[in-house]
Amino acid sequence: MTKFSELSLNPKVLKAIADAGYEEPTPIQEGAIPPALEGRDVLGIAQTGTGKTASFTLPMLSLLARGRARARMPRSLVLCPTRELAAQVAENFDTYSKYLKLNKALLIGGVSFKEQDAAIDKGVDVLICTPGRLLDHFERGKLILSDVKVMVVDEADRMLDMGFIPDIERIFGLTPFTRQTLFFSATMAPEIERITNTFLSNPARVEVARQATASETIEQGVAMFKGSRRDRADSEKRKLLRALIDSEGEKCTNAIIFCNRKIDVDVVAKSLKKYKYDAAPIHGDLDQSQRTRTLDQFRAGELRFLVASDVAARGLDVPAVSHVFNFDVPGHPEDYVHRIGRTGRAGREGTAITLCNPRDEKALAAVEALIQKEIPRLDNPLASSPSEDATSEAAQAPADETEKKPRRSRSRKSDKPKVDETRTEDTPAEATPEVKPDTHAAATPDTPDDKPREKSRGKRGGRGRSGGGGGGGDNRTVGMGDHMPTFIAQSFDERRDG
Q1: What is the rounded distance in angstroms from the CA atom of residue 298 to the CA atom of residue 319?
Q2: What is the pLDDT of residue 487?
Q3: Whole-prediction pTM value?
Q4: Which CATH architecture has domain 4-207?
C-alpha cells in the first residue's frame, strides 16, 4: 500500500498531512500526484467524495513552495463552480500549507470587492475563485494573469451544467500557453472532452472509477409516491418525507435534503421547522453570510437537516452526513451521483433515499440507466397511502364546512333567489316557495292584444325587459327592420296614433 511519504511531496507538506491524520492516499490521489509533480497536465476522473481536492492541492503546494508572487499577478489559479466549493478548497489549502509561507486569496460573489482587491494587491500565490468573480476583477484592471504557472479546473462537469464553459474558455485564453493544467471532473460529457482536447497538452489520464458511479458504501432506495389530488400532492409529499425521516430513527443523525427548485427549498425547510424538525435552507438566492453561517452550523452538528438546492451537491465535504434525501428526482442523472455522494464519504456508510412521483419516473429511469443498477423500491412508511390519508381527513371534516362552498358558488351565478336549486332531496316539494308568474306584463295597458304579450313573456317578461325585437306583426313598424328596439317602436306608434 502506497503512503504519502512515497509520493515525493515537499517535506513541509508531508508534515501538514501527518498533522491532519492521513497516511495513505486515495486511488485518485495516488494516480494524480506523481504526474502533477512532474509538471504534466492531468485529467482526473473520479466519483465525488474520493479526495479529488487533495489530488491537486498537495502537488500545487509542493511546486509553489519556492518563489514569491508579485502584486496582482497570482502564481496559480483554482476555478470552482460554486462559492461553497471554492471556500472548501481554500480550507484545504489552509490545512496543508500551514508550514509554508504562501499567500492565498478567495474571490467569490457576495463579498466586498474592496477586501478582495486588498488581498490581490499584496501578491497571491494561490488564487481560488469562481469564474464570474475572477473575470469581474480582471475587467476592472485588478488582475494580471500572465504569471499563472498552474491552473486547476475543479468539477468541470458542474461548470458545464451552470453555463460557465464560455468563461472557462476565455480564462484559458488569458493565461500563458506554458501553464500546467490540472482538470478534474466526475463525468466526461462531450463538451468537456472537447475542452480537454483543446486546452490540455498530452495529459496524464487518471480514472479510478467508472464514470458516474455511486459509492458502494451508500445504501440507496426510492419511495414511490402518488398524490390523492393535484392540489394536495405537495403537502402529502412533505408528509411522506417526514415519515421517511422518522422511519430511519436514530440512524439518521443528520441529513441533506435536495430539491430541484429554490422555492421548494424554502417551502420544505419551513414545513420541517413547523413540525419541530431542526432544519434550515441553503440556495443561491440567499445572502452569502447566511449561507456560510448555515453551513458552519451544519458542519458543527448544531443543525440536523440542511435543505439545499444543487448548489450543495458539489463540494460540500461534511464527513459524517448519515443520510441524503432527494425530495425531487434530479433533472440531470449525473446530479443524482453528486447528491448522494454527500454521504458515505471516506469509506463511511451512508443512506440515500429518493421520493419519486409518476411524472418523475422517466428521470428515475435515466438515473438507473446511468448508474447501471436498479434502485430498490421502499415500502411506504405511512400506515396508509397519502391519498387514503387525505380522503379520511376530508371525510372527518365538519359537515357545515363542506356545505359552505357550493352555496357560495351558486349564489355567485345568479342573484335571483331560486330556492329550488338549493333544496335537497329530503325537502318536501310543498316547502319550496312557488315562483309567481309575471303579472306586470299582463297589466301593461298599451299592449294591443294577448298574442304578442305571450311572446314577450317567453323572452323574460315582456317588452319592458326584453332586449330583442318587439312582439308580433301588429307591433312592427314598416321600414325600420325586424330588430328595431321596442322603445323606438313605441315612440313611433304613439306619434302615429296621435
Answers
A1: 11
A2: 61
A3: 0.64
A4: 3-Layer(aba) Sandwich (3.40)
- Classified as helix, coil or strand, 116 is helix
Q: pLDDT tens for residues 299-342? A: 899 999 999 988 766 656 777 899 999 999 998 888 898 888 88
- Which residues have a Cβ under 8 Å from the Cβ of 433 and sit 6 or more positions away? 419
Instruction: Give CA torsion, residues 306, 310, 313, 318, to 10 deg.
Output: -20
3-state secondary structure of 79: strand
Q: Give the alpha-carbon dihedral of 135, 141, 143, 146, to 10 degrees.
A: 100
How is residue 222 written as a grid cell?
426510492
Q: Identify the residue whose cell numbers are 425547510.
A: 269
**Identity at 181, one-letter amino acid code:** T
Domain range list for the chain: 4-207, 218-391, 397-431, 450-497
Looking at this protein, which amino acid is placed at residue 98?
A: K
**pLDDT higher than threshold 90 for residue 448:** no
Third-level CATH fold of 218-391: Rossmann fold (3.40.50)
Q: Which three cell numbers stand for residue 453?
A: 304579450
Contact (CB, 8 A) for 283 and 332: no
- DSSP, res 134: H
Distance of CA 315 to the CA centre of its chain: 16
Helix (H) or strand (E) holding 324: strand 323-326
Q: Which of 97, 130, 100, 98 is nearest to 116 (CA)?
A: 130
d(CA 377, CA 449) in angstroms, rounded, equals 81
Looking at residue 365, what is its pLDDT? 95
Strand stretches in 97-237, DSSP E: 104-107, 126-129, 150-153, 180-185, 204-207, 218-224
